[in-house]
Sequence to fold (264 residues):
Amino acid sequence: MLGKLMRKKPIVPDIKMSDQIALLKSRKIPAHVAIIMDGNGRWAKQRNLPRVAGHHEGMKTVRRITRVASDLGIKVLTLYAFSTENWKRPKVEIDFLMKLPGEFLSTYLPELIEQNVKVEMIGNFSMLPDHTKDAIRRAMEETASNDGMTLNFAMNYGSRLELVESVKKIANLVAEGKLAIEDIDETQIESHLMTAHLPEPDLLIRTSGEVRLSNFMLWQLAYAEFTFTDVLWPDFDELCMFDAIKDFQSRSRRFGSVEGEKEA
Ligand code: V07
Fold:
Protein backbone atom coordinates (compact mmCIF):
# COMPACT_ATOMS: atom_id res chain seq x y z
CA MET A 1 0.00 0.00 0.00
CA LEU A 2 2.66 2.49 1.08
CA GLY A 3 4.94 1.02 -1.56
CA LYS A 4 2.77 2.78 -4.10
CA LEU A 5 3.22 6.08 -2.31
CA MET A 6 6.98 5.80 -2.20
CA ARG A 7 9.12 6.92 -5.09
CA LYS A 8 12.34 5.13 -6.04
CA LYS A 9 15.46 6.49 -7.66
CA PRO A 10 14.32 7.63 -11.11
CA ILE A 11 15.69 5.94 -14.23
CA VAL A 12 18.09 8.36 -15.89
CA PRO A 13 16.35 9.77 -18.97
CA ASP A 14 18.58 10.62 -21.89
CA ILE A 15 17.60 14.29 -21.95
CA LYS A 16 19.94 17.21 -21.21
CA MET A 17 19.49 18.79 -17.79
CA SER A 18 18.71 22.21 -19.29
CA ASP A 19 16.02 20.66 -21.54
CA GLN A 20 14.44 18.89 -18.58
CA ILE A 21 14.38 22.16 -16.65
CA ALA A 22 12.78 23.94 -19.61
CA LEU A 23 10.17 21.19 -19.93
CA LEU A 24 9.27 21.36 -16.24
CA LYS A 25 9.12 25.16 -16.40
CA SER A 26 6.55 25.00 -19.19
CA ARG A 27 4.12 23.76 -16.52
CA LYS A 28 3.33 24.92 -12.99
CA ILE A 29 6.37 25.12 -10.71
CA PRO A 30 5.65 25.06 -6.96
CA ALA A 31 6.46 28.49 -5.47
CA HIS A 32 7.55 27.06 -2.13
CA VAL A 33 9.13 23.63 -1.68
CA ALA A 34 9.85 22.29 1.82
CA ILE A 35 12.17 19.32 2.36
CA ILE A 36 12.76 16.97 5.29
CA MET A 37 16.32 15.85 4.56
CA ASP A 38 16.31 12.39 6.08
CA GLY A 39 18.66 9.40 5.75
CA ASN A 40 22.09 10.91 6.31
CA GLY A 41 22.91 8.60 9.24
CA ARG A 42 21.70 5.55 7.32
CA TRP A 43 23.76 6.55 4.26
CA ALA A 44 26.88 6.59 6.47
CA LYS A 45 26.00 3.32 8.21
CA GLN A 46 25.66 1.53 4.87
CA ARG A 47 29.26 2.53 4.17
CA ASN A 48 30.60 1.77 7.66
CA LEU A 49 31.26 5.46 8.15
CA PRO A 50 30.44 7.55 11.25
CA ARG A 51 27.01 9.27 11.19
CA VAL A 52 28.66 12.67 10.84
CA ALA A 53 30.12 11.61 7.48
CA GLY A 54 26.51 11.28 6.29
CA HIS A 55 25.65 14.76 7.58
CA HIS A 56 28.66 16.17 5.76
CA GLU A 57 27.67 14.46 2.51
CA GLY A 58 24.11 15.73 3.06
CA MET A 59 25.48 19.26 3.09
CA LYS A 60 26.77 18.78 -0.46
CA THR A 61 23.25 17.74 -1.49
CA VAL A 62 21.97 21.02 -0.01
CA ARG A 63 24.26 22.84 -2.42
CA ARG A 64 23.12 20.81 -5.47
CA ILE A 65 19.43 21.07 -4.69
CA THR A 66 19.68 24.79 -3.93
CA ARG A 67 21.19 25.38 -7.35
CA VAL A 68 18.66 23.30 -9.27
CA ALA A 69 15.73 24.72 -7.28
CA SER A 70 16.87 28.22 -8.17
CA ASP A 71 17.24 27.19 -11.85
CA LEU A 72 13.70 25.78 -11.79
CA GLY A 73 12.33 29.14 -10.65
CA ILE A 74 11.25 27.95 -7.21
CA LYS A 75 10.77 31.08 -5.07
CA VAL A 76 11.31 29.59 -1.60
CA LEU A 77 13.18 26.44 -0.59
CA THR A 78 12.78 25.53 3.09
CA LEU A 79 15.15 22.86 4.42
CA TYR A 80 14.68 21.15 7.79
CA ALA A 81 18.30 21.24 9.00
CA PHE A 82 17.87 20.85 12.77
CA SER A 83 14.76 20.17 14.84
CA THR A 84 14.11 21.04 18.47
CA GLU A 85 14.18 17.24 19.03
CA ASN A 86 17.71 16.95 17.67
CA TRP A 87 19.18 18.32 20.94
CA LYS A 88 18.61 14.78 22.32
CA ARG A 89 21.36 13.41 20.07
CA PRO A 90 24.92 12.71 21.37
CA LYS A 91 26.87 15.88 22.11
CA VAL A 92 29.61 15.08 19.57
CA GLU A 93 26.98 14.81 16.83
CA ILE A 94 25.32 18.08 17.86
CA ASP A 95 28.70 19.84 17.94
CA PHE A 96 29.41 18.58 14.42
CA LEU A 97 25.97 19.61 13.13
CA MET A 98 26.35 23.10 14.59
CA LYS A 99 29.58 23.56 12.61
CA LEU A 100 27.87 22.76 9.30
CA PRO A 101 26.24 26.17 8.75
CA GLY A 102 29.66 27.83 9.13
CA GLU A 103 31.34 25.35 6.78
CA PHE A 104 28.51 25.48 4.26
CA LEU A 105 28.54 29.25 4.16
CA SER A 106 32.31 29.71 4.09
CA THR A 107 32.40 27.35 1.10
CA TYR A 108 29.24 28.28 -0.79
CA LEU A 109 28.22 31.83 0.17
CA PRO A 110 29.96 33.33 -2.89
CA GLU A 111 27.98 31.11 -5.25
CA LEU A 112 24.74 31.77 -3.38
CA ILE A 113 25.37 35.48 -3.89
CA GLU A 114 26.16 34.86 -7.56
CA GLN A 115 22.85 32.97 -7.90
CA ASN A 116 21.03 35.92 -6.27
CA VAL A 117 19.86 33.61 -3.43
CA LYS A 118 18.63 35.14 -0.18
CA VAL A 119 19.47 33.16 2.99
CA GLU A 120 16.91 33.16 5.79
CA MET A 121 16.20 31.09 8.90
CA ILE A 122 13.18 29.99 10.91
CA GLY A 123 13.46 28.50 14.40
CA ASN A 124 14.81 29.56 17.76
CA PHE A 125 18.00 31.44 16.91
CA SER A 126 18.95 32.39 20.47
CA MET A 127 19.72 28.80 21.61
CA LEU A 128 22.31 28.17 18.89
CA PRO A 129 26.06 28.35 19.69
CA ASP A 130 27.63 31.77 19.02
CA HIS A 131 29.77 30.56 16.09
CA THR A 132 26.64 29.12 14.39
CA LYS A 133 24.70 32.34 14.98
CA ASP A 134 27.58 34.42 13.60
CA ALA A 135 27.77 32.37 10.38
CA ILE A 136 24.02 32.50 9.77
CA ARG A 137 23.73 36.18 10.69
CA ARG A 138 26.53 37.08 8.28
CA ALA A 139 24.97 35.08 5.44
CA MET A 140 21.58 36.71 6.03
CA GLU A 141 23.15 40.17 6.05
CA GLU A 142 25.22 39.60 2.93
CA THR A 143 22.26 38.24 0.97
CA ALA A 144 19.56 40.52 2.41
CA SER A 145 19.16 42.54 -0.78
CA ASN A 146 19.10 39.50 -3.12
CA ASP A 147 15.72 39.03 -4.76
CA GLY A 148 16.10 35.57 -6.30
CA MET A 149 15.20 32.37 -4.48
CA THR A 150 14.90 32.42 -0.68
CA LEU A 151 16.89 29.59 0.91
CA ASN A 152 15.17 29.19 4.25
CA PHE A 153 16.86 26.98 6.83
CA ALA A 154 14.68 25.57 9.60
CA MET A 155 17.20 25.45 12.46
CA ASN A 156 16.19 24.52 15.99
CA TYR A 157 12.67 24.58 14.62
CA GLY A 158 9.56 22.84 15.96
CA SER A 159 6.11 23.56 14.61
CA ARG A 160 4.09 23.08 17.80
CA LEU A 161 6.37 25.48 19.69
CA GLU A 162 5.98 27.97 16.81
CA LEU A 163 2.19 27.71 17.19
CA VAL A 164 2.42 28.13 20.98
CA GLU A 165 4.51 31.28 20.47
CA SER A 166 1.99 32.62 17.97
CA VAL A 167 -0.88 32.03 20.42
CA LYS A 168 1.08 33.78 23.20
CA LYS A 169 1.66 36.86 21.04
CA ILE A 170 -2.05 37.00 20.20
CA ALA A 171 -3.00 36.56 23.88
CA ASN A 172 -0.73 39.49 24.70
CA LEU A 173 -2.48 41.68 22.14
CA VAL A 174 -5.81 40.73 23.70
CA ALA A 175 -4.53 41.40 27.25
CA GLU A 176 -3.28 44.83 26.14
CA GLY A 177 -6.68 45.61 24.66
CA LYS A 178 -5.21 45.85 21.14
CA LEU A 179 -7.19 42.90 19.75
CA ALA A 180 -10.73 41.66 20.38
CA ILE A 181 -11.24 37.91 20.89
CA GLU A 182 -13.81 37.93 18.05
CA ASP A 183 -11.05 39.17 15.73
CA ILE A 184 -8.79 36.15 16.31
CA ASP A 185 -8.86 34.28 13.00
CA GLU A 186 -6.59 32.21 10.75
CA THR A 187 -4.92 35.32 9.39
CA GLN A 188 -4.01 36.40 12.94
CA ILE A 189 -2.42 33.04 13.78
CA GLU A 190 -0.62 32.97 10.45
CA SER A 191 0.72 36.49 10.79
CA HIS A 192 2.47 35.51 14.04
CA LEU A 193 4.21 32.44 12.62
CA MET A 194 7.89 32.60 11.66
CA THR A 195 6.85 32.10 8.04
CA ALA A 196 4.42 35.04 8.01
CA HIS A 197 6.31 36.74 5.16
CA LEU A 198 6.51 33.60 2.99
CA PRO A 199 3.97 31.88 0.74
CA GLU A 200 2.68 28.54 2.07
CA PRO A 201 4.61 25.48 0.83
CA ASP A 202 2.99 23.88 -2.24
CA LEU A 203 5.12 20.76 -2.04
CA LEU A 204 6.69 18.76 0.79
CA ILE A 205 9.42 16.25 0.01
CA ARG A 206 10.68 13.74 2.57
CA THR A 207 13.58 11.46 1.74
CA SER A 208 14.66 8.09 3.15
CA GLY A 209 11.35 6.25 3.24
CA GLU A 210 9.84 7.82 6.35
CA VAL A 211 6.23 8.95 5.96
CA ARG A 212 5.81 11.36 8.86
CA LEU A 213 5.72 15.13 9.38
CA SER A 214 7.90 15.11 12.52
CA ASN A 215 6.60 18.45 13.82
CA PHE A 216 7.50 20.29 10.60
CA MET A 217 5.35 23.22 9.41
CA LEU A 218 2.09 21.64 10.61
CA TRP A 219 -0.01 24.76 9.96
CA GLN A 220 1.72 25.80 6.75
CA LEU A 221 1.46 22.38 5.07
CA ALA A 222 -2.34 22.19 5.39
CA TYR A 223 -2.88 22.27 1.59
CA ALA A 224 0.52 21.10 0.30
CA GLU A 225 1.13 18.07 -1.91
CA PHE A 226 3.35 15.50 -0.19
CA THR A 227 5.92 13.37 -1.98
CA PHE A 228 8.04 10.67 -0.37
CA THR A 229 11.06 8.84 -1.72
CA ASP A 230 13.17 5.91 -0.56
CA VAL A 231 16.29 7.75 -1.72
CA LEU A 232 18.56 8.82 1.17
CA TRP A 233 19.27 12.56 1.33
CA PRO A 234 22.98 12.31 0.36
CA ASP A 235 21.87 10.42 -2.80
CA PHE A 236 19.02 12.83 -3.63
CA ASP A 237 20.14 14.49 -6.88
CA GLU A 238 18.76 16.74 -9.61
CA LEU A 239 16.87 13.84 -11.23
CA CYS A 240 15.17 13.04 -7.92
CA MET A 241 14.19 16.69 -7.66
CA PHE A 242 12.78 16.64 -11.22
CA ASP A 243 10.82 13.52 -10.31
CA ALA A 244 9.30 15.23 -7.26
CA ILE A 245 8.30 18.25 -9.37
CA LYS A 246 6.81 15.98 -12.05
CA ASP A 247 4.80 14.24 -9.35
CA PHE A 248 3.56 17.64 -8.17
CA GLN A 249 2.69 18.71 -11.71
CA SER A 250 0.75 15.53 -12.48
CA ARG A 251 -1.35 16.09 -9.36
CA SER A 252 -1.96 19.81 -9.99
CA ARG A 253 -3.09 18.90 -13.50
CA ARG A 254 -5.58 16.39 -12.13
CA PHE A 255 -6.98 18.73 -9.52
CA GLY A 256 -6.11 22.18 -10.82
CA SER A 257 -9.15 22.62 -13.04
CA VAL A 258 -11.62 21.81 -10.28
CA GLU A 259 -9.78 23.52 -7.46
CA GLY A 260 -11.96 23.76 -4.38
CA GLU A 261 -14.28 21.02 -5.65
CA LYS A 262 -12.39 17.75 -5.65
CA GLU A 263 -9.64 19.14 -3.47
CA ALA A 264 -10.04 18.47 0.23
C1 V07 B 1 23.01 20.32 8.02
C2 V07 B 1 23.30 18.76 6.09
C3 V07 B 1 22.01 18.48 5.37
C4 V07 B 1 21.32 17.25 5.85
C5 V07 B 1 20.65 17.41 7.18
C6 V07 B 1 21.50 17.34 8.41
C7 V07 B 1 22.90 17.84 8.30
C8 V07 B 1 23.33 22.94 5.70
C9 V07 B 1 23.12 23.65 6.86
C10 V07 B 1 23.00 25.10 6.99
C11 V07 B 1 22.19 25.65 7.97
C12 V07 B 1 22.06 27.04 8.09
C13 V07 B 1 22.72 27.83 7.21
C14 V07 B 1 23.53 27.33 6.23
C15 V07 B 1 23.68 25.96 6.12
C16 V07 B 1 22.99 22.70 7.86
C17 V07 B 1 22.68 21.75 9.93
C18 V07 B 1 22.78 20.49 9.38
C19 V07 B 1 22.43 21.93 11.38
F1 V07 B 1 22.57 29.19 7.30
N1 V07 B 1 23.32 21.65 5.96
N2 V07 B 1 23.12 21.47 7.28
N3 V07 B 1 22.77 22.86 9.17
N4 V07 B 1 23.09 19.05 7.48
